[in-house]
Amino acid sequence: MNAFRTLVLVFPLLGFALLAAEIPISLVPRHELGSRDPGYLRFEELVWSTDCEWFHKPAPVCRVVEKPLDLTLVIEEAKKRGMVLNPKYDPGPEEDGAVDYHTTEPPWLGAGGVARKRYLFFGYAPFRKFDRDEHQMAVVKPLASREECVRMCREWMNRLGIDESQLYRGGDWPGGFEVKEARPRVTRYHPVLKKDVIAEYGQQLRFSQQIGGLPAFWSGYGGNLIFSIADGGEFCGVKGCLRAWEKIGDYEVLDREEVEVALKEGFFWVHDPIDCERLEVMKVALEAYHSHWKVPQRDFPLIYNITCKLHGGPSEGKEKKILIPALRQHRHRYGPPPEPSGLAPGEKAPDPDLERLTTPREEPWKNGNGGSSMRQ
Predict the structure, then answer these.
(1) Number of domains in the chain
(2) What is the pLDDT of residue 47?
(3) Where does residue 120 rank: exposed (0-12), middle (13-18), buried (19+ CB within 10 A)?
(4) Fewer CB within 10 Å: N-end or C-end of the chain?
(5) What's the whole-number mean pLDDT along residues 327-335?
């Protein structure tokens, strides 16, 4: 009888333990993180000027759920502006529910999206446009303020049927939004002033999605909405992908001591070499990896996005980013670091971790096409 009672008590406990156990979460693709070459990170001392709440508690992990995006309002707005269906567009079976509208005369604009993949785009006006003076210098109007930008973007979210509760609100922009701003510009030599003159012709604003309460990791047009606003505060368009999610559970992540060990043992990824005497950690953000919108994914693994300030060495005073997969279950699943390349500080060499299987992580306005510092 006692043995039977023991079994009755033990089996429910075993079942609870199995339910509470962490399921394996996908790895963040290495090519999305940067280089793991040990020679890319050199420092003598590591100091902390910040803390991170996730060093002290488990973090939310979510999975992708199928929930097609309603493009009804996007299509209505496209039709209002004279856009028609593109007869040559063939989305194929993988993009069921995809639509593509465009104008039939200048300015060439388009709108639509892929409902199944929750991607949308809407072009309202040409972005890179400005007048020229008698010296062929760009003539631009004042840019919109932060408040004006957010008001305009929220207005268009409402018009296009975008639920703004999908966006992360732990930032310092109006409304608490987390926004990354870039100001594309043209630079031209002024024949009278005898110097280069810079003209900023607009703003591009990247609003981060929230996934389980965490901001999305930047990965092309995935996990973000990117708005374009021309000089003078004219809305030009928006595009992005916000995948639907549901929470799996709270998972253990690396704490501060484990992050320190990871940095010293080569469990890190960087895009730019770091060489300094003292590495000062200024900020630690926990982000949920959202793949590029064209790349399928099952769940949202977590990443520490660490901002560091460099003291001593060739990059004195500069801030650099270091990425570390944050889930404790991932600590040894990436395998050991590669052998050091033996490069001098600042040198770069081909790295298998940097092979681009999807869209690069660089911001869209730094891709060389209408970039942030064009000369014209």
Answers:
(1) 2
(2) 97
(3) buried
(4) N
(5) 95
* Same domain, yes or no: 237 and 251: no
Whether residues 209 and 314 fall in one domain: no
Is 338 part of any domain? no
182 shares its domain with 322: no
Instruction: Match 């991170």 to its residue by tokens.
Output: 52
pLDDT of residue 92: 65
| Token pair for 171 | 């930032």
β-pairing verdict for 195-200 and 185-190: antiparallel
Enclosing H/E stretch for 211: strand 210-211
Q: pLDDT value at position 302?
A: 98
Q: What is the 3-state secondary structure (H, E, C) of 221-278?
A: CCCEEEEEEECCCEEEEEEEECCCEEEEEEECECCHHHHHHHHHHCCCEECCCEECCE
H-helix segments, the chain: 2-20, 72-80, 146-159, 256-265
**What integer pLDDT is reported at residue 39 of this predicted model?**
87
How far, in Å, CA of 2 to CA of 22, rounded?
32
Whether pLDDT at 341 is above 90: no
Which of 225, 241, 257 marks a domain boundary?
A: 241
Phi, psi values for residue 122, rounded to 5°: -150, 115
Inform me whether the pLDDT recorded for 370 exceeds 60.
no
- The answer to whether residues 174 and 319 belong to one domain is no
Q: Binning pLDDT at 50, 70 and 90, where does residue 215 land?
A: very high
In one-letter notation, the amino acid at residue 303 is: I
